[in-house]
Amino acid sequence: MNTLTRRGLVAASATLPLLAAGRARAQAPTLRIGVLTDMSGTYRDASGPLAVMAAQQAVQDFGAATKGLAVEVLSADHQNKPDVGAGVARQWFDSGVDIILEVTNSAVGLAVAGVARDKNKAYSNSGAATSDLTGPQCNANTIHWSYDTYMLAKSTGGALVKAGGDSWFFMTADYAFGNALQRDTTAFIQAAGGKVVGSVKYPFPSTTDFSSFLVQAQSSGAKILGLASAGADTVNQVKQAREFGVTSSMKLAALLCFISDVHSIGLEIGQGLRLTNSFYWDMNDRTRAFSERLRPKMPAARPGMIHAGVYASALHFLKVAAEMGAAKAKESGAATVARMKAMPTDDDCFGKGVIRSDGLAIHPSFLWEVKTPGESKHDWDLLKPVATTPADEAFRPLAEGGCTLPRT
Prior knowledge:
Blueprint: E1 11-14, H1 19-23, E2 30-37, H2 48-62, E3 70-77, H3 82-94, E4 99-102, H4 106-119, E5 122-125, E6 142-144, H5 149-162, E7 167-173, H6 176-191, E8 195-202, H7 211-219, E9 224-228, H8 231-243, E10 251-254, H9 259-265, H10 267-270, E11 274-277, H11 285-294, H12 305-324, H13 326-331, H14 333-342, E12 345-347, E13 351-355, E14 361-362, E15 365-370, E16 383-389, H15 391-394
Parallel strand pairs: 2-3, 2-4, 4-5, 5-6, 7-8, 7-9, 9-10
Antiparallel strand pairs: 1-3, 11-15, 12-13, 13-14, 15-16
Helix pairs in contact: 2-12, 3-4, 5-6, 8-9, 12-14
């Protein structure tokens, strides 16, 4: 990819060594997968370089070269700016990228979905959380993997209200993701008989000192402090809440918390925190096998649900492209996405599943609790299971999302 110096964009491309065999067959067009992610900001650890590696791992596991497919994996940093993300998407699509993956940040994700629609290319999101991607802003070119604000709200918010946390105060990142997460969680709180007594929105991504917001939350008298945030913001909020004594009178609900966040927080501070993830590296034999294959690429980290979504969506795209033929898969993003919806999904991260007509990948969600230091056996042994929401209950019912795509 060319460097977008006018926008200050730093972009990098990574082409897998296994492409040599594909290039020898001049008649086989190259499939190009672009991983558009946060390489330098709030969500770097939850997505970032390991998301690119997850896409590369999918190409490797699929055996693209042995199946006659030439594949390139590109990467770029959207800097959490919708205009930068949309600019990269346009340039990539115009230069032959066939599908964009990941795109942590809901505002950027919504912008990229619009570009994918306009350019008739494919976009499979696993980082942006807003449920609007498969709701009122759905389109035939977009798939949403891993999690969304509805799923997070139902699993974490609903469970805490049932456990007695019936009064809430929200501390919300003021952009599309945070606002959608507060909206969806509020609906579950009220439906369960709880109430929201107050909220505060903080500027994103420019805020690192949350002390004044935490004082407001504590003075509200609410039982639960809902953190409608993610990444480094959530890490800082949990640490500062402990430092300022907020946790002595309120329980924290990390409404989107990744395994990398828990690792950064540490078990001493994070123990007892409950969170929803659709993937945990140590969940079963298949998730452990995937994590071990990925581990040599970044030994000091473990994959989270964004990385799992990148892997699953890249693998599924390649399966469909192999079935359609590369040339056919490149002709129309909407047609390729339609085939991705028609083919059942199956991968080591999520197991067997389906992609609904609105573009939502359906799989179970899991409520986890952060272990105590005494329960943990090693550095990344961080979570224990609390509850499972079955696949057919985890996500918003198709009829309630407001998506105008035909229901099939």
